[in-house]
Design a protein that fits this description.
13 helices; Rossmann fold; alpha/beta
């Protein structure tokens, strides 16, 4: 289950310099100043790790100030994909952002995150879950409501039984294929989520996504991700009264042009959280945090308090 072992042997694990780890051609279309900014982030935000129940949990610990913010990243499973979010909020408060290890059960993943907070001496956090990370956040707040001061769900959705039924067989087939082919299929599947709008920071995000999938994500991590999504659709139903006894506040960040959350999907999650504040963006698609970064971060800052 511990997929971190191959990563621990990687000599680039501590630095992850863009020019060496990714190769210059992958970032060829990205302005040099943005590549340099990512390199500076990597130099100043080194990963830490704890071993919890025989599994290595790698995470970024940035900034200072209470209450901390727990950042749960998307389907890339690597916290660094949310580096601009981490960078922004670390200027205001402590930020903890874990990679997702190869844990196949949603409850175990949520409990591992809670154990990570325990190791860091953190009692309560604001929780920000984006895309797939929003599903992780929804499980986490239900298993550990006492740890959550507030919940920000960004560009995410509810568990879907139909998706789970299809993905169950897809996951079995992918498990038999070589990892480079599986990785290529995964990249092709998620590519439409990146808007085609010309944008230098969006180009950087695309290049980083490719790098993380090629260099950092392991096949066990990916297959565990699929198994968790299947389990969500088969075994989880999020209802409005689930959090009736929880006093925290909820913010839903959605985009009307997000291909991952069409109107029926957005309506369903809004109905599941009737007391949530809702902010609907336009023009950024699934990448609002990149394309409309100032508006996006301002909405979260106002919600959790600067």
């Amino acid at each position: 289950m511990d997929s971190a072992a191959p990563q621990a042997q990687n000599p680039r694990r501590k630095g992850w310099n863009v020019s060496s780890a990714a190769g210059p051609s992958r970032y060829a279309g990205v302005p040099a100043e943005l590549v340099a900014r990512l390199e500076r982030f990597r130099e100043t935000h080194r990963y830490r790790a704890h071993t919890i129940a025989s599994t290595e949990w790698r995470f970024i610990d940035a900034g200072r100030g209470d209450p901390p913010l727990l950042v749960l990243s998307g389907a890339a499973c690597i916290a660094e994909m949310s580096w601009t979010t981490i960078e922004h909020f670390a200027a205001r408060r402590r930020v903890l952002a874990p990679d997702y290890p190869a844990i196949t059960a949603n409850a175990a993943l949520a409990d591992g995150i809670a154990a990570l907070l325990d190791r860091e001496g953190v009692a309560r956090v604001h929780v920000l879950g984006g895309s797939y990370g929003g599903l992780v956040a929804q499980v986490f707040v239900r298993r550990h409501p006492e740890r959550c001061l507030s919940l920000v769900l960004s560009h995410t959705l509810l568990p879907d039984p139909k998706t789970a039924a299809t993905l169950r067989w897809v996951a079995r087939a992918l498990g038999l294929l070589p990892w480079p082919l599986v990785r290529a299929l995964f990249k092709a599947r998620l590519a439409p989520l990146f808007p085609k709008t010309p944008n230098p920071e969006l180009a950087l995000s695309k290049a980083l996504f490719v790098e993380l999938l090629n260099e950092r994500l392991s096949k066990p991590q990916f297959l565990a991700l699929l198994q968790r999504v299947v389990e969500l659709g088969q075994s989880y139903r999020f209802a409005p009264d689930d959090l009736a006894g929880w006093t925290g506040r909820i913010l839903l960040l959605l985009a009307e042009d997000d291909p991952a959350t069409p109107e029926p999907v957005r309506r369903a999650i809004i109905e599941a959280y009737p007391r949530a504040q809702v902010r609907l963006f336009s023009g950024g698609g699934h990448a609002t945090a990149v394309v409309k970064r100032e508006e996006y971060f301002a909405a979260i800052d106002a919600f959790v308090g600067e």
